[in-house]
From TrEMBL:
A Pfam family assignment: Cyt_bd_oxida_I
Species per Swiss-Prot/TrEMBL record: Jannaschia rubra
UniProt key word Nucleotide-binding: no
GO molecular function, one term: heme binding
Record protein name field: Cytochrome d ubiquinol oxidase subunit 1
Predominant location: membrane
Amino acid sequence: MLGSFDAVLLARIQFAFTVSFHFLFPAFTIGLASYLAVLNALWLKTRDHKYLDLFRYWVKIFALAFAMGVVSGIVMSYQFGTNWSVFSDKAGPVIGAPMAYEVLSAFFLEAGFLGIMLFGREKVGDALHMAACAAVALGTFFSAFWIISVNSWMHTPAGFEIDAATGQFLPTDFWQVIFNPSFPYRLAHTVTAAYLTTAFIVGGVAAFHLLRRRRRGEETSPATRTMFSMAMWMAAIFAPVQIGLGDAHGLNTLEYQPQKVMAMEGHYESHEGGAPLYLFGIPNDETQTLDYAFGIPKLSSLILKHDLNAPLAGLDTIPDEDQPPVAIVFWSFRIMVALGFAMLGIGLWSLWARWRGRLYDTPWLHRAALVMAPSGLIAVIAGWITTEVGRQPFTVYNMLRTVDSVAPLAAPAVGASLVAFIVIYFAVFGAGTFYILRLMSRPPVFDEPRLGDSAKGPIRTAGITPAPQEARRHPAAMKPGE
């Protein structure tokens, strides 16, 4: 059955599945690591126990999410050598070094200080423990820095030459490779998205406990209130920042990847006197039309060119073989934008409630925050799909086609591994996600148990104390009949 599928398509689906699954965890832990560092700093500064309780509450969730992110990320490197060996051979001289730097500067930093962050508060002192928290947060940022640099180079390649004999990309200027034209925009947009993702998950968990305590007529703990307040501050501050960064990123994309923006906007036809912003439509690649289109005249030109009457080229200027799949890009972009404005709405609503002194007594705000808890995760996946599918049919934009990057594998081999990945991922990471939700379902309490205290089983393979056993007494000390 799998032999009837295209091997290239199956390889793309497999990579899309694994990278999307993996991306969910860093999108959460990048922001959560910084949140934990802030909580720890506030505890050390104020000695207010609610900050320590929140730190202990969220560090358990962070440990599990971080572990799943690491495990799911290992698979990506294997796929470069199996399904995408041709791409690895040709682009390896350029992207190999930044990916190695990610391990050396980011993963080693995280791994080196993670144990101190999780278990070392009472062992190393406050100053070193705070340094470990900051190092882990910094490590997550460095990881994003290098990975986004590599990915951005694939979209806006720079600082290289192509070897005429081997067809390999050879670096000529590593500064241009790393700081390629789209990298600053992608890094800022991605890291801010991670912070918003964490903010809405934290806010959703706090809203859940606020609603449940309200329904039961119980008083909400100071830690839960603080958790909700901090999350809503992040939403109110970073949601408008993210919209501004998205606009700047879009303008950069228009300059370097115009057909991606054409697909995002649904512009099959060029518009000489101002292009409309289509809010709805059904892209039809066969007829090169946007069926049932509904839009606002000239608004797209205003957004992209800051001029109502500015002309915008359409996909009719791009050869058919160089056009991305419009429908996927068109709809994933709209999902991302809609969620971004919904986040902005929650942030503004929280400011209004805070100004009225009702931040903790507005049930509909809490219900909205609970519904929006996974919105950051959905938005980052939608944005990732927009970015990566919009680059097609190239792996290295305008330089190396996807069909020329895949390894010479048969469709059944790729399909079988894809099925195995799906089954294993949903079993293993589904169980981990279920346990994270179980942890979130319990509110933070005063004197929250430490990570080690909350463990049900051993945290070491061999242990440090002997297992309980029957007392071995000297025969002379035994009672008669024993």
